[in-house]
Amino acid sequence: MTTSSCEAQWRNAAGRQLNLGAALLSLSVLADSGIEHYRGSFQNRAMYVPLGVSALALAASLFGVLDTRARSHVLRDGLYGVAAMTGVIGLGFHGYNILKRPGRFSWLNLFYAAPLGAPVALLLAGALGRGAEKVREDRSSRILGHPAGQTLGLLTSAGLAGTAAEAGLLHFRGAFQNPGMFLPVTLPPVAAGLLAASVINSGNALRRAAKACLNLTALLGFAGVAFHAYGVSRSMGGWRNWSQNLLGGPPLPAPPSFTGLALGGLAALSLVDKEQRSPST
Q1: What does R_g of the chain's alpha carbons equal in angstroms?
Q2: Tens digit of each residue's pLDDT (9 = 90 or more) over 1-49
Q3: Which of 24, 90, 138, 178 could form an SS bridge with 260, CB 3.0 to 4.6 Å?
Q4: 143 phi/psi in degrees, rounded to 5
Q5: What are phi and psi of 278, to 5 degrees?
Q6: C-alpha distances in angstroms, 171 versus 90, 111, 130, 212?
């Protein structure tokens, strides 16, 4: 196998991992927004938009995961751009929803108004997806003027920190009744810090620690679904009353966001490894 074909396979593998991370984020947004906007009775017609866009981003991401070609796809790239822009606009809508309430950015409004994390997750899905297309096209690609691995690593680090902050807010609302509720506010921030540090510094020990924490964070996303399912079962009527308890209980679609971001972080670290070994970058 020639060097160029090995390089193409490596770029494709990194791109597909980023596509998988984007897929999990898109699925999380689709399911979570569907539940939350249904609970809000779709009072604003614009509340249908993130469902359609996240479904398209999910389809594009699954196409990317299955695509074995080491080149970008214009339709996928365009859909990811739409997803990112929708996330930015949705953040404005959710911020306005908070600001128009009495007390504005008060704890009560942050607890119960439109969540800021959902549109940011769609923005991150679009950003990771566009990063996947960049990586597929050229291993030495640059994003915002910096090497792709470095940019994507810092992006996923910030995403992990923000997702942990939102989990902390909602778990604080739940008074941390279960000790497991401390996990998403401790492990992901550590993973985020190690990821950012390992992107900036080239220490092997630091990078191994970052990879270990990211792998644990990926598992935490799946464990979180089980914890939330248990929380739903403890509500009055349990799963027999699923139509009500899914709306009022802990959100099942939220934890996989950690898995999606952790996969993106692991892909970014592999890109950084390759970039630092290559004299051309």
Answers
A1: 19
A2: 555 667 677 778 889 999 999 999 999 999 999 998 888 888 888 899 9
A3: 24
A4: -125, 125
A5: -95, 120
A6: 23, 10, 32, 25
